[in-house]
Hints:
By secondary structure, the chain is of the alpha+beta class. The protein has helices at 11-21, 32-39, 43-56, 74-77, 85-100, 142-149, 153-162, 176-189, 230-255, and strands at residues 59-62, 65-68, 103-110, 113-120, 135-137, 192-195, 202-211, 214-224.
Amino acid sequence: MTADRSRDRVQSIERAFAVLRVFDRRATELSAGEVAARAELPRPVVRRILLTFEHLGYVRGRKGLWSLTPRILELGAAYFSASSLPEIARSAMDDVVAQLGETCSLGVLSGPDVIHVARVEDHRPLPGSIHVGGSLPAFATAVGKVLLADLPAPAFETYLSRAVLERYTPATLTDRDRLRSRIARVRRQGYDVSIEELTPGSVAAAVPIAVEGEAVGALGISSTTVRQDEASLTRDAVPVLAAAAERIARGYLGANPNLRIPNR
């Protein structure tokens, strides 16, 4: 986890990205005032940022509403290249869905959150499910806890000291000592099973995708309490996920032969 070096950051760039990030699938068109409120920035600043992005071709303003343009995809294109983790994982994720009949997701850690970078839906998609590019709090998800378990101890303690442990359901771990114990257990067993910790009625299991001893991502499935419980996820889902994660790790290393995992 990168140390806070606020003096080395460029505030205007931070503000620009804050503006871009307010747009999502529930807010595809927003007024400048709405963007300012969501980004928590002054409206004149937001107006200049939007006009700049419009000049660059990344947003479009029409009848007082602003929206992203397809050119925004350029910013993520390199990540989804042929040698990237999401591209390599796709075949293995398809097989997981075929074997388990559940939705499969691939996530990476980004600050306190998990960003979902790939997802394969079962024919029974989950209501309100996360989309590619969406984020969820790491501490409340199976994918997130697997990735937190891979952090070096000092980095995890830094995360724990800063994380806002919001209660989403009665099962959410909001006590720091209990979360620390849970992460230690995940580290020992190599997987996590979460039962209704983020959303009532939802369950999940996840394993790390380990390359040269470090998790470059985590693979998980999501289901409902109607179809799965802790025992069935541990017995049936975890072995399938582990085999798929190993296959993805081999493919990722093969596609990136010069990959060097930094010492942590």
